[in-house]
Amino acid sequence: MATACISRQIQLASGTYSWGHVMLNQEGHQERSIYLTAANYNWKECIDPRSGYYTLTGSLQVIVDSDPLPAAHLEPLDIDIRGMSDSDQNWTWGSYINPKF
């Protein structure tokens, strides 16, 4: 399987946010607190199948004059599916960003 990514542009106000990614149906979760300035961002999340597990990665890029510039990255989150009896089921995965203000 190939890496799959989703991306969207969002507008955020200045402030501190909780940002993390999660895969439901599995105990995998990683979150960090991040301060962002008011701007338009490109928010991207990818899932990369490995041998017996998946790696989730996320990034935010500030969009300046139509050019995306790196702003922040989430540390990769490895989701281990080895030993699970129902590994062919549907999974919900992704990231979230929640304001703390």
Salient structural properties:
101 residues, mainly beta, globular
| H and E string | EEEEEEE
Rg, rounded, reads 15 Å
The shape, in one word, is globular
Quick one: how many beta strands?
7
User: What portion of residues belong to β-strands?
Assistant: over 45%
Helix content: under 10%
Low-confidence blocks of residues: none
Name the strands of the widest sheet in spatial order. 1-4-5-6
Largest β sheet strand count, sense and barrel closure: 4 strands, antiparallel
List the helices and strands and how they pair.
Blueprint: E1 4-12, E2 15-23, E3 28-36, E4 39-49, E5 53-64, E6 67-80, E7 93-99
Antiparallel strand pairs: 1-4, 2-3, 2-7, 4-5, 5-6
